[in-house]
Amino acid sequence: MIYLDNAATTFPKAPRTLERALERYRDLGVSPGRGSHDLALRAGDAVDEVRSAVAAFFGAPEPERVAFGANATDALNTAILGLLRPGDHAVATRLEHNSVLRPLHHLTQAGVIAWDAAPFDERGIVTPDAVEALLRPETRLVVMTHASNVLGTVQPVAEVARRCAARGIPVVVDAAQSAGQVPIDMAAMGIAALAFTGHKSLYGPPGIGGLVVMPSLEVATTRFGGTGVDSASLVHTQAYPLRLEAGTLNLLGVLGLGEGLAFVRAQGVEALHAREVALLTRLRDGLAAIDGVTVYRADGDLAGRVGVLACNVAGIDPEDVGAILDGDFDIAVRVGVHCAPLVHRDLGTIERGSVRFSLGAFSTEADVDAAVAAMRAIAGG
Predict the structure, then answer these.
(1) What is the mean pLDDT of residues 220-243?
(2) For labelling alongside 39, which of 17, 86, 138, 282 has CA 20 to 30 A away?
(3) Which one of 339, 370, 373, 377 is the catalytic residue?
(4) Pair 238, 348 in one domain
(5) CA count, 13 A, side-chain hemisphere, 105
(6) Of 179, 191, 195, whose CA–CA distance to 261 is shortest?
(7) Residue ranges making up the domain that contains 204
(8) Is pTM beyond 0.85 here?
């Protein structure tokens, strides 16, 4: 199978990544931070090692402010629900995944907040001016994707954060698609909090992600439970990271994340990105040359993108294109609305969605050429 659905989950993982994590788990598979015996302490140390690695990778100064969770969706819920209060206003963008849109919509439906979504331009970019135009005196949060999961465009979050900082508004970034594909330095970019997931371009397993919070930001606890400390109190611990972690951590997932992160650091984020941009350009050029194929917002230099490309074939439903690619050509892609309805509404594809190709570290030129050949055959009937 040619796997071109890496924006959903990268596959395969790096050689021996999951095996090494499982080997460590066999030795340390107890509850970290839930006992004073040696094994629990060693498990806790292993978690802290990964916290430190994550903080360093994202340019965050305090590892204890890396709070692990299930995925980026979990982390974004933690941030959005932990930062917004009755009467507040928030700004997002029309590029957002439902992991941002649905929590904001929920709070709006409950009468808690109001929010607006900044549009993207013909390049697929949300400009800082577009965000700034929506800010109000009661705006308390800007939350935006770093890279669109439909268009692949990398957004100018550093400039947005700079303008918001002048008004005292924190910027929370959804890095689900960008983490591991483009360099991120939270301190340098002015990002107040960052949500990440392990199973995409960090090449870890599913079920692990987290929220990285800068020292200047306080996120309220929204879930309560056991932390392993202050157990006699009914008040949830307010020290980080336990402030945002309730219950036993996914130790195997944390170990897998650490191994995936080690792979990305060894390869180099810039090198991985450059390789994917070269493949993306080859894919774009091939698809754009096919009569009847429309490629969305992918003109010009693709250096400011991650390895995602959306397209459609005239007269053929995207679901049918995906089924033919899978059944006849053994090529795996993602079709539909990609959990990003506002993007598709603005592209005019909300009814059918699109066919999304997404590249990974193990994609090859041969994979790209096979995909182009298959799409040419489909478009030609």
Answers:
(1) 94
(2) 17
(3) 339
(4) no
(5) 10
(6) 179
(7) 17-267
(8) yes
